[in-house]
Amino acid sequence: MDYMEGERLDKVCNGLPEEEKLDLVDLKGEYIGSLDRGTAIYGRRFNLEGGPFDMEVEFIHFLLSDTLRVAPQILRDIASCSLRTDHKAVFTLGDFALRNINAKDGQVMGLLGWENSGWYPEYWEYVRTLNGSDHRLSWYNYAGQIFPNCYEAEYINDRFLGSLLRH
């Protein structure tokens, strides 16, 4: 393990000048890790692990596999029907939150938290970033600029699904 210069953005983002925030917005896409097709990790209160998955429909079955037994069947059906299966698989950090970005003088020094990285549907990083963000921090407002595509429906679906899961 090496020392990484900089400060975690969750500690300093609200105090950064606007131009420095805009410089940091371009960091997405510059950091790609190994491509080892490891297991998928989905965590809210604790981690659920599975995969690798060859198709998105298998990933969705994995997500739905941990629904609460007491969740009404109609809500399970709504969750199942609302999840699309036509997204591309892309390699993501899996935890693209401010606490995992080290920056210094308007430059990204590196990303932390690679334990959740892997191949996920293209919306995954966007959804996980919004779910893991402290909405009181100004950085939250830059998500639309950081990510080339916004996945609002997938975000809403993930929040709904989260209300039905044990983990």
From TrEMBL:
GO terms for molecular function: kinase activity. Keywords: Kinase, Transferase. InterPro entries: AGP_Transferase, Kinase-like_dom_sf. Coiled coil: none annotated. It comes from the Eukaryota. Signal peptide: none annotated. This is Kinase-like protein. It comes from Venustampulla echinocandica.
